[in-house]
Amino acid sequence: MEYAIEVFDLTKVYRSEGKEIKAVDHLNLKVEKGSIFGLLGPNGAGKTTFIMMLTGLTLPTSGSGKVLGYDIIKESLQIRRKVGLLPEGFGFYDHLTAEENLNYVAALNDIPKEERRKRVEDVLASVGLLEVKDRKFGGFSRGMKQKLGIAQALLKNPELLLLDEPTAGVDPEGARAIRELVLKLNREGKTIVLSTHLLFEVGPICDSIAIMNYGRLVLQGKVKDLLERLMAEEGYRIKIEGIGEVGAFAEELSRIAGVRSVRLEGKAVHVVAEKDIRVEIGKLSAKHNIEIVTLELQQPSLEDLFIKYYKKEGLSYA
């Protein structure tokens, strides 16, 4: 397994007026190359500080880490050459056009003058802003501004993109466009880290997630594995709709080993069990001459996962 990011006991302590604030507290996590990784948590959880340490913008107090194989302390310059960063509130000049703003950023990044025009046009096309390249930034919508921020992060053709709050303040249509853009960039081979407190905006497109609060990791893993674990913990919820005498059928269902509860709702039977018992349900329905119309294992959603761990940790989200 290849990792784009690996950090070990990464810690950042700020000292102010004799007090210590642990912005990041012994963080251990890995981000697989080629994945979309969601770094989730409320404002003040330590997400931005973590990103700053990954890119050498601030030094860790202790711990270590690697980005694309480079040490975050000793080789931060090499990291910045290969990583595209969208910081929260990236500043462009309102009186300059989209193209002029990107030309300026390209110059700051030492992109040769003869390459700049093509590189700028390529990234504008990639984010869907080529047709408005001559429009002044001050006239852009919030969603267009965020897209231009992603465009500047793409100027170096990075292997890894770190996007801090990419959908903050963006209307639903703009947020959807940014999600589609992230998926497109990922299909092109880029590893993408989405740092956000807007969990439901980007959560569904992530392969893996980590939830942070007060600088600590609350939960991390592949979304698929976390949802399966939640189903095992909370119970497998199965909905059965059938034609026939469902009362006796439901009563016998409740006696199957591992069944936690059985609830009748009209002609529908709702079962919660410790395992997937759809095979047993099929056999029992034949015994009771029940014609099964629906036999559905109801998968938990990412929202169910978030709610469980938010409540567990007492998290509060905007």
Strand content: 25-35%
The CATH homologous superfamily of the largest domain = P-loop containing nucleotide triphosphate hydrolases
Q: Main beta sheet: strand number and arrangement?
A: 6 strands, mixed
Computed Rg: 25 Å
Unreliable stretches, pLDDT < 50, 5 or more residues? none
Helical content stands at 25-40%
> DSSP helix count?
11
The total of beta strands comes to 14
Averaged pLDDT, please?
A: 89
CATH architectural group of the largest domain? 3-Layer(aba) Sandwich
Structural class by secondary-structure content: alpha/beta
Number of domains: 2
Terminal residue distance: 35 Å
Global morphology = elongated
CATH T-level topology of the largest domain: Rossmann fold
For the record, the CATH class of the largest domain is: Alpha Beta
- Helix/strand order, N-terminal first: EEEHEEHEHHHEHEHEEHEHEEHEH
Brief digest:
Helix content is 36%, strand content 31%.
Q: Could you characterize the architecture of this molecule?
A:
This protein is α/β, with parallel strands linked by helices and 318 residues long. It folds into two domains: 3-222, P-loop containing nucleotide triphosphate hydrolases (Rossmann fold, 3-Layer(aba) Sandwich), CATH 3.40.50.300; 235-298, 2-Layer Sandwich (Alpha-Beta Plaits). Helices cover 36% and strands 31% of the residues. The protein is built from eleven helices and 14 strands. The strands form three sheets. A six-stranded mixed β-sheet has the order 6-7-8-3-9-10, sandwiched between helices. Strands 2-1-4-5 form a four-stranded antiparallel β-sheet, covered by helices on one side. Strands 12-13-11-14 form a four-stranded antiparallel β-sheet. Helix 3 crosses helix 4 (113-126), helix 4 (113-126) packs across helix 5 and helix 5 runs parallel beside helix 6 (172-187). The longest helix has 16 residues, at 172-187. The mean pLDDT is 89.
